[in-house]
Specification:
160 residues; hpI Integrase, Chain A; three-stranded antiparallel beta sheet; 9 helices
């Protein structure tokens, strides 16, 4: 569940309530999630990356998925966070691993640092305004440096 949330940006409550009929395939063969955020009732569409598709495919015949009409089996948020804390402790990870960190990881590490515009990220996360997305958008130094390098190259065209 954590990895799927890292690759979709879904909040815990949204992954828990996600149904198979909210996943569709377009004419080009790409898979998407089209749903509404539970928290804000705002619609969103997320193009699925191959890792997310593979996870969904892996669990499609799992008894809990079949019996509960869900996409993947989901433990309670408390239990999930407890296991994530245990994993972090055993792996000597200093970060506070939680289900919500997966959403943050999608917003920052998966999308923004790979050049996805903040407006697009906000739309996929189901945010009503850009200010909410900016909360997630801790732009890391390497991204700032990369952007400035592109700017220097563009401006270099005009220098004599």
């Amino acid at each position: 569940m954590f990895v799927l949330c890292c690759f979709t940006g879904l909040a815990y409550v949204d992954i828990q309530s996600l149904r198979p009929d909210e996943i569709y395939q377009n004419e080009e063969g790409g898979f998407y999630i089209k749903s509404k955020r539970t928290k804000t009732d705002t619609g969103f569409t997320i193009p699925l990356l191959p890792t997310a598709v593979a996870i969904i495919e892996k669990y499609k015949d799992h008894p809990k998925v079949v019996n509960k009409d869900c996409v993947i089996p989901v433990l309670s948020n408390q239990k999930s966070n407890s296991y994530l804390k245990e994993i972090a402790d055993r792996c000597n990870i200093k970060k506070n691993l939680t289900t919500h960190l997966a959403r943050h990881t999608f917003a920052t590490t998966v999308t923004l640092t790979n050049g996805v515009p903040i407006e697009t990220v906000g739309k996929m996360l189901g945010h009503k305004n850009l200010r909410t997305t900016q909360h997630y958008a801790k732009i890391i130094d390497s991204k700032v440096e990369e952007d400035m390098k592109v700017l220097r190259e563009k401006l270099g065209q005009f220098s004599t």
